[in-house]
Design goal:
Number of strands: 8
Radius of gyration: 23 Å
CATH topology of one domain: Uracil-DNA Glycosylase, subunit E
CATH superfamily of one domain: Uracil-DNA glycosylase-like domain
Bound molecules: uracil
Strand content: 5-15%
Low-confidence stretches: 1-76
CATH architecture of one domain: 3-Layer(aba) Sandwich
CATH class of one domain: Alpha Beta
Mean pLDDT: 80
Shape: globular
Largest sheet: 6 strands, mixed
């Protein structure tokens, strides 16, 4: 039998049931509700693997609800697909490990970066790393792969980590914001602050001996230090978290790539050695 093109998703469903002999639906008498407006695709050229990225955001939505289920079900919370939706602070604080935390927050739409992402970039590495690196936010490559520092800056970061005798798998790498800012711009403070509770819980769960911040953004947003990175890099800072964690600020690898001078490279090398020495002294 020749098939009609499916004008409506319900029609396809009805056809399938009819073909299977499950239901004697008469097509012509089927009353079909009007199709909703086409969804607004944030990036029409990229197939979305994330349900959030391909759904309409302009439709009226039901009120925000957080739906706790038991931790045994894996991803502990469902975040409704609507602007501003996020897990509560209690939910984030209650995440028992990194996988649990990622499950809680990966559907976040708390700030305007959420609807624009292709992939949520949670972070990666050793969940019990002694050394943690914190960058600014995902770029294009990171957004595509869902992993931090996998582009050009990431290649250099890998070399920096290797230079102090470690591998990417031994450290932990995260960012201030977990979703890509458009055109790789610096995240606004509002965006960074919306994401900061997630990073703080991540730090608590990893409990690193030392943190290396990369560039001005983590310094400003996580530590509240607004002085320029050129002045502050190489000077120990202190993060007040679940305990005091020493922080070594250094240049962002993307900056090092742009300013590939002996002075800049020497500075980064000195900062990394200082951080590694701290780790070795505090096993
Ligand atoms: N720059 C960052 O700050 N983070 C990344 O993950 C990649 C580039």
């Amino acid at each position: 039998m020749e098939k009609r093109p499916h004008e409506h998703p319900f029609q396809a469903w009805a056809d399938t049931l009819q073909d299977l002999g499950v239901m004697g639906l008469v097509r012509e008498t089927l009353t079909l509700p009007a199709l909703p407006a086409l969804p607004v695709h944030v990036r029409p050229t990229e197939p979305s693997l994330h349900p959030v990225a391909s759904r309409a955001t302009s439709q009226p939505r039901p009120p925000l609800v957080q739906v706790p289920v038991t931790a045994a079900l894996g991803s502990a919370y469902v975040i409704p697909d609507q602007p501003g939706a996020r897990p509560s602070a209690e939910t984030v604080a209650g995440a028992v490990n990194l996988a649990d935390l990622e499950g809680c927050i990966q559907g976040c739409l708390a700030c305007p970066l959420g609807p624009g992402r292709f992939r949520f970039v949670f972070g990666e590495g050793n969940p019990k790393a002694r050394l943690m690196f914190i960058g600014e936010g995902p770029g294009k490559d990171e957004d595509q792969q869902g992993l931090p520092f996998v582009g050009k800056a990431g290649e250099l970061l890998d070399k920096m980590i290797g230079a102090i005798g470690l591998t990417r798998e031994q450290v932990y790498i995260a960012n201030v914001v977990k979703c890509r800012p458009p055109d790789n711009r610096t995240p606004t403070s509002q965006e960074a602050q919306a994401c900061l509770g997630y990073l703080r819980r991540q730090i608590e769960l990893i409990d690193p001996a030392v943190i290396v911040t990369l560039g001005a953004t983590p310094l400003r947003e996580l530590l509240g230090v607004a002085t320029g990175i050129t002045k502050v890099r190489g000077t120990w800072q202190n993060l007040v978290a679940h305990r005091s964690i020493p922080v070594m600020p250094t240049f962002h690898p993307a900056y090092v790539l742009r300013q590939y001078t002996d002075d800049v490279r020497r500075a980064v090398w000195a900062d990394l050695k200082a951080a590694k020495a701290w780790v070795d002294e505090h096993p």
